[in-house]
Amino acid sequence: MRTKKITNQALIEFIITKKVVLMAELKDFLQTNANMTVYRRLKELSYISSCSHSGKYYSLNEIAKFDQSGLWIYDSIIFSVYGNLMETCEHFINNSESGYNELELRQIIGLDVKESLLNLYKKNKIVRDQLGNQFMYFSVDPSKKRSQIILRKKQFSSRSLNIGKLNNVITDELQAAIILFYSILDERQRRLYAGLESFKLGHGGDKVIAEFLKIDSHTVSKGRKELIDENIDRQKTIRKKGGGRKSIKKNA
Fold first, then answer.
1. Statement: 85-157 belongs to CATH 1.10.10.10
2. How far apart are the first and last CA of the chain?
3. Using one digit for the tens of pLDDT, what is the confidence trace for 161-213?
4. What ranges make up the beta strands (E) of 7-126?
5. Which residue, among 29, 84, 31, 77, has the nearest Cα to 57 in the 3D structure?
6. H or E element at residue 156
7. Where in the chain is the domain with CATH 1.10.10.10?
8. What is the number of other CB atoms lying within 10 angstroms of the CB of residue 92?
């Protein structure tokens, strides 16, 4: 007896119910053992594959809720409107004002981008240039690259923070260390750290720190006010125990 064909509408409703699905789940629903059959059916839909987890998760454009940067995170699974991780890195670099280094891009996307950057560089899809003691990545378009480098060099030469009564120019190494330290803090700790550095700077500090850490100045202001008002609950955590995204179990 011939198996009844699963309609595209039925497949859409299945994915909408699950929101995010694995290849094994799709094969089971479509009653097939062939990956190519699943890919052929997905191509008939407006589907997306994950930017994280080696692209093994699938969803639909109509389900995704991409933020302003073009990313959507669902239960720790990251999707990008620009495609896979390499394509996403390429987009951000080619459309940035002053290029990115590895730490900056990792902070934006939320994934380890080292291998993707290396592959893009080897394929001549981005340009790598050393400024100071770190590698920066720029657009392959000569005109865009030139403007990115000029702006980045201006940022390097003018970037400074007042620490107490001293005015210390931030070196490339210190900048990288600060960004790395900032990236491992939770949301509340980031806000308070930004507020502390702004408080040290005094008038105009919110804007300076916001630009340096690439965050909203209102976030900096909120953290600074919490510190000034001593409105800090030392027992408070960002999420209740057991909260947050569920962990993803890797299939054997």
1. yes
2. 34
3. 544 434 445 566 677 778 888 888 888 889 999 888 888 777 778 888 888 88
4. 21-22, 47-49, 57-60, 71-74, 77-80
5. 77
6. helix 142-158
7. 85-157
8. 22
